[in-house]
From TrEMBL, chains A, B:
PANTHER family: GLUCOKINASE, ROK (REPRESSOR, ORF, KINASE) FAMILY. Belongs to the ROK (NagC/XylR) family. This is ROK family protein. It comes from the Bacteria. SUPFAM superfamilies: Actin-like ATPase domain. It comes from Nocardioides albidus. InterPro entries: ATPase_NBD, ROK, ROK_cs.
């Protein structure tokens, strides 16, 4: 009988599980609501286990991969800190392995998505790339020499909390002016609320934008411009071949990426004299994190 | 007879040459004024050749390394763009080899300084580090796995033109709000001029600060704080073991690095849960670029 693996992505608003086969193809998906940071670690761990079980099928997977938005230590044992998640220096791998009775691999959500995009998505065959995932917040990953760079302590690619506005908007992480305050699902909702005078959630703003609504288009132009400005800074620092943009908010496509491309080019020095990398959508969509977690469970965490 | 090599660093205000022996020790140094961007390419190339000749000693060096502030292409043939330098997509390596009659190696100034600090300075034995050089502007280099990372097109580490203030101060590169407008020798002079109502150059501000002058100390605190804020963003992105700060402005030591350390820690998310890298002075001082260029001439450009 063929083997399978399960990947679970723990985001700010939902817990998404996928099951993949030996070839990496997705066989099943399931979604559970994210109980939220305030619900505490136990509740979120139970949601992870339940979402995973939703896609087990006839029998448990060989191993389980978990993708989570925040700082994971270099060997994947501990979840150190995430603004939207309840864990603080928690031995998450062991806790989830005990709860599920399966071998577990834990990694940062953007590292998982980058692994998936590298193996099977927009960055296939690329030697150096940046991955920027826009969901509730911003995640990031760096690919150099065809591999995800972990950094000295496993924390490379934490782009969301780079300051882009001095004394700017307060962030859940405790700082001010973080990039994800200006470019994220929450930023999209805030910008829209300010313009409309009432609250719409991200999918509602996306639907309006796709229908041509001016306010919604303007909201995407705002966060897209901030995407491009921030991406330009990262391009100056890393000089990648390619910038890949994923995460739920990127599902709107060029309504976000068009303004981002314009702003990225406009915020890079010497563009008449230097190559400007392409900025392209992630190919695996909002499931990239979960798929990458499952692939890491299959391949082992490098 | 023993061999020697010459390195020349072309900065915004001066051209500095050093001669090294086979062990990498400095045997002679010389300085010429930088004619300035407006003087044109020929004039600056002549200054490079003259500064080099000042340290030839009894006979020409085996090879010449040139360190310059700006974008150098991946194979070190062309100088693409630098805000303070006259060259635009210029085949600089060939031109200088023809002018001097010696084999020439060209690299970005911060890459040169990083090479020197890695081999013989503050980053000796370190696997991952960021080098930030503060002179007329800001240069940068990234070390991963014990080697200087070049990026897809040889342009990695261009930190100076990352935007830190939206719609901020106009920069010579044509953009606004670039980091080096807030943290550089020119920023030091501007901040001091605003406070004092008259112009002092960088070395004068440094002398005053070392003598305890309040205005000068405040100027260094300002650019040091911006150093820390920008460094925090880079630490979030790269997660290095160490941040090394070099360049002429860093000669003032802790008067700059103290405020930078405070601001870096204050601008990093989750510092209660993550390691914060040390921020240390470069060990080779303002000559690091020239020494690194000479070492690259000796070792070959990787």
């Amino acid at each position: 009988m063929s083997e399978h693996w399960v990947g679970v992505d723990v985001g700010g608003t939902k817990v998404l599980a996928v099951r993949i086969d030996e070839a990496g193809d997705v066989e099943a998906t399931a979604t559970r609501p994210m109980p939220g940071r305030a619900a505490g670690a136990e509740a979120v761990e139970e949601a992870v286990a339940l979402a995973a079980r939703d896609v087990y099928g006839a029998r448990p997977p060989r191993a389980l991969g978990v993708s989570a938005a925040g700082l994971v230590d270099a060997d994947g044992e501990r979840f150190l800190f995430g603004a939207h998640l309840p864990w603080r220096d928690t031995p998450l791998r062991r806790r989830l392995a005990e709860r599920t009775g399966r071998p577990v691999v834990v990694d940062n959500d953007a590292n998982c998505a980058a692994h998936a995009e590298l193996l099977a998505g927009a960055a296939r065959g690329v030697r150096s790339a940046l991955l920027i995932t826009i969901g509730t917040g911003i995640g990031g990953a760096v690919v150099l020499d065809g591999r995800v760079v972990r950094g000295a302590h496993g924390l490379a690619g934490e782009f969301g909390h780079v300051q882009v506005v001095p004394d700017g908007l307060a962030c859940e992480c405790g700082l001010r002016g973080c990039w994800e305050q200006y470019c994220s699902g929450r930023a999209l909702e805030r910008v829209t609320r300010v313009a409309l005078g009432r609250h719409l959630d991200g999918p509602e703003v996306t639907a309006l934008a796709l229908a041509g609504d001016e306010v919604a288009l303007q909201s995407f132009a705002s966060i897209g411009t901030w995407l491009g400005v921030g991406a330009a800074g990262l391009v100056s620092a890393f000089d990648p071949e390619l910038v890949v943009v994923g995460g739920g908010v990127s599902a709107v496509g060029d309504l976000l990426l068009g303004p981002a491309r314009t702003a990225m080019r406009g915020s890079l020095q010497g563009t008449a004299y230097r190559p400007v990398p392409e900025l392209v959508p992630a190919r695996l969509g909002p499931e990239a994190g979960a798929i990458g977690a499952a692939l890491l469970a299959r391949d082992g965490r490098s």
